[in-house]
Amino acid sequence: MQRSSYDTAAALLPLVGGPGNVSSVAHCMTRLRLGVADRERVDAEAVRAVPGVLGVVADGDTLQVVIGPGAVVAVTAEFEKLLGGGLPGSPQRAPEGRGEPREQPRRARTRPGNDGAADLAARGAELKAVRARRNATPLKTALRRIADVFVPLIPALIGCGILAGLDGLLVNAGWLPWLTPALAAVASGFMALISVFVGYNTAKVFGGTPVLGGAVAAIVVYPGVAKVTAFGVALVPGEGGVLGALAAALLAVGVERWCRGRVPDALDVLLTPTVTVLVAGLATLYGLMYAAGLVSSAIGTAADWLLATTGPLAGLVLGGLFLPLVMLGLHQALIPIHTTLIQQQGYTVLLPLLAMAGAGQVGAALAVYARLRHHTQLRTTIRSALPAGLLGVGEPLIYGVSLPLGRPFLTACAGGAAGGAFVGFFAVLGDRVGATAIGPSGWALFPLLTGNRGPALAAAIYAGGLLTGYAVGFLTTYAGFSGAEVPDDAGSASDPATRRSG
Fold first, then answer.
1. What CATH number is given to the structural domain containing 12?
2. Which of 35, 62, 280, 307 suits a disulfide with 216, CB 3.0-4.6 Å?
3. Which residues are identified as catalytic?
């Protein structure tokens, strides 16, 4: 097997404290997310030095190892195999035919004078870890846990979103009428039942029984709720959407925990599930669905008003601030809002604005590439990270280039703000651009684009925003970053000048 999966996972396991120190394993589009019991047992510096690792984000009791799209899925699967299919308390089994993973020798810290690009990556990850520790507030921790509920759903959202867009194109063109109903069914099935998946993941993440969370959340989409009257109004199946499902599952977790501590062991298997579903289910019908419906409607109304009245300003702020959210790992907390808008309107108008941050990042990286013509290692890093950046995966460029350099990170934000303002300007004119699913950005978002005036105009506006982000990110970085602060490959980083940012 290629080193990018098994060997990477085998090298990581001892460096994060071994199987006994890993409490959870998950992944998003680019990061292996590990829950760790003892942060002191994690050698973040050695993890960064593992081949295939692009960066490390230490955030409370969660370690995020940036590996990149595609590769992270294979590495996560191999990591779970090394844990023996379980977490603490499960015996460790080696994958068949491979034997036990050996302790990997810890690599010495890269000397600044030997590899400037690696030193910059290490500085960026260290800076990120310090900022994350300072911002580990209860609110942000809760937001990250909510993000953990929705991150596993992204692959299905992407696949169904692309199929929904393809179905729309075929219907509008009048092509393949015998196929479009089947495509519509395949694309819509997941979205019709997404509340069940949200409930299942919510209970799993917050410490309840997953299937009970899914059972309570299923009430939200059950057609029979139309016969129930709450607050004098008949309920509508699906009212409250994913927010209602999230709230219902959270309540179910609380009820289940209360029961576990009070019900005798002999009756636990009967009473705890029954009481959990009954109490949380009735509360969902006679309160949570109605309240979540109000919140969902408010989100849709606020998004429409924001773009219709303050489009350029909204785009500037959202596009300019999204990279810091990515840097802090908080961008995934926006998934419930995107999902709510997709359920209501068929697309989210926020994602194309936020995607402009990646364009600014690419422009800034190209400017650094042009400035540092004699810095071979850093230019190699940029060349390897640019394809992912063009497809909207910004972590390699953030942690390997712009963040450790300092000023290019700020100018990348300026490029994102300019691109967002461009897209927001057309929203004021009545031309809204949206995405039918979440996950991709950059060029990868084109198949998911649509809008109130059709996908062709939406794609043209989005392309204009990307070009604006590229141009402003490049120009502001090229003008404000001389590169004199960065040593050449053979230079010494012990000079104080090498420790200054931007």
1. 3.30.1360.60
2. 280
3. 28
Segments forming the whole domain that contains residue 491: 320-499
| Identity at 178, one-letter amino acid code | W
Whether residue 217 is contained in a domain is answered as: yes
Examine the domain organization and report whether 328 and 469 are in the same domain.
yes
Residue 253 contacts residue 205 (beta carbons within 8 Å): no
Q: Is residue 387 part of a domain?
A: yes
**36 three-class SS:** strand
Write the DSSP symbol of residue 438: S
Contacts of 290 (CB under 8 A, 6+ apart): 230, 231, 233, 235, 239, 240
Q: Is 387 helix (H, G, I), strand (E, B) or coil?
A: helix
Q: Which tokens sit at 227? A: 């016969």
Please, are residues 322 and 357 in contact by the beta-carbon 8 Å criterion? yes
Please tell me whether residues 264 and 341 are part of one structural domain: no
Residue 82 CA to residue 86 CA, distance in Å, equals: 9
Residue 297 shares a structural domain with residue 406: no
Are 47 and 157 members of one domain?
no
CB atoms closer than 10 angstroms to residue 421: 25
pTM of the model: 0.70
- Report the domain count for the chain: 3
Q: Are residues 244 and 370 in the same domain?
A: no
CA distances from 379 to 70, 304, 373, 383, 421 (A): 23, 42, 8, 6, 30
Which of the 8 DSSP states describes residue 88? T
Residue 137 lies in a domain: no
Taking only the tens of pLDDT, the chain with its 502 residues reads: 445 678 888 889 889 888 888 888 888 777 888 888 887 888 888 888 888 787 787 766 788 888 877 778 888 888 888 887 555 433 333 333 333 443 444 443 444 444 555 566 566 556 555 555 555 566 677 777 887 888 788 888 888 888 887 887 888 778 888 998 999 899 888 888 999 999 999 999 898 999 999 999 999 999 999 998 877 888 889 888 899 999 999 999 999 999 988 888 888 889 999 999 999 999 999 999 989 989 988 998 898 898 889 989 999 999 999 988 877 766 777 888 888 898 888 899 999 999 999 999 999 999 999 988 888 878 888 888 888 888 887 777 887 788 888 889 999 999 999 999 999 999 999 899 999 888 778 898 898 898 888 888 999 999 999 999 999 999 999 998 876 666 555 333 333 333 333 3
Residue in the block written with tokens 């599952």: 249
